[in-house]
Amino acid sequence: MTRAAIYVRISRDREGGGLGVTRQEQDCRELADRHGLTVAQVYSDNDLSAYSGKPRPAYRRMLDDIAAARVDAVLAWHTDRLHRSPTELEEYISACEPRGVPTFTVKAGPLDLSTPSGRMVARQLGAVARYEVEHQVERQQRAKQQAAADGRWGGGRRPYGYEADGVTLRPDEARVVARATDAILAGGSLRAQAAELNGRGLVTSTGRPWTATELRKVLLRPRNAGLREHRGEIVGPAAWQPLVDEDRWRALVSVLTHPGRRTQWSSARRWLLSGLALCGVCGTPVRATLMSTTARSVPSYTCKVSRCIGRNAAEVDAYVSAVVVERLSRPDVTDLLAADSRPESSTLQRDAATLRERLDGLASAYADGAIDVRQLREGSERLRARLAEVEDRMASLGQGDALAGLLGVPDPQAAWDGLDLHRRRAVIDTLMTVTIHRSRKGRPPGWRPGSSYFNPSTVDIAWKG
């Protein structure tokens, strides 16, 4: 009895002429019957390309079984189902040749890899298959490049916010992108926004739950602003409608890509004023840490330098929150609105584009021999420093929306309670500078039995603007 192995594979780009693995297996079984072979095992790598270089588990198992003498012959729909690179072909020959394992294919006929002529035919078929793939990739790249130049979509996975054609808007998803953009510009966190989307039962375009990383990728897409991207470069306006205006998208990019943006969650950011409030003694930012009292350890604010102060974090947070809500409840709350920053935003975008063009010009001048390495380095350092200043300003303008949805609301307390920690911190950073002083020993003025010793006069709030 000759034990035959059937290997079937189909890649994402449907290179098997539309045949699925089930149809390939059926054709191979018919081929086995014609040659009097007994099918002992079917090895299937569905939705995997032989060209991409990604591991093919079933293919690896088949090679192991050939080496272990558990397979006497191999059946495939075509040789390009088995391999599409010279390296893989030589590995396959090395596995089959010592034991004289023949290969039978539905479309390319039999291959006897134990003979020089059989190996020559296999190598010729492999070279043709390699050429076809490379030629196909070349055509696809040309098509994508032309689509980018024309502002058309180049195809691929359905982009979130649009239908499968990549152009037609999905209103519900478009609102999600716009709302998340506003939330991040207002000081919210990607983690909190992803959690909110999951809590509402919303999923990505592939049906998976949201993560901070996936949300960041979606929000940073140039297509959200109606811009076409090709190989990481914006090449011009696109044919589809934007989900957000370009000014807001560029502000968001400045915020999310800013070097100072925190990407890791830590205990220091579980409290409202960590890193925001200042020590009243040494002037450095405070942090939240556990400090022991006579009875228990209490989360407290203390400075990073020498622990000049030690104040109950929950009490200070509650007081500052009450001050913010009171300010938002005043009739003159609209005075907190900053002047329209759109004209400055447009100017900053032009400045940033000019600086990037000058950086590219320096690189071209160096390549042409017009400047030397020292001039390239010094010029690049100066331009990058100026570009960093412009991008910092763009980020600060984008974060100026921290008060969005808080001004003029019927219930400021409820609005404040509905914000996540990152958004509350952004509001405080926009409105005030908090300085925490040492507490005085003993009971504060007006103390009553059962109340806290917290003294509001030891927390100084200086309003900005």
UniProtKB/TrEMBL annotation:
UniProt cross-references to SMART domains, sorted A to Z: Resolvase
PROSITE patterns: RECOMBINASE_DNA_BIND, RECOMBINASES_3
UniProt-recorded Gene Ontology molecular function terms: DNA binding; DNA strand exchange activity
SUPFAM superfamilies (alphabetical): Resolvase-like (SSF53041)
Protein name per Swiss-Prot or TrEMBL: Recombinase family protein
Organism: Micromonospora carbonacea
Lineage: Bacteria, Bacillati, Actinomycetota, Actinomycetes, Micromonosporales
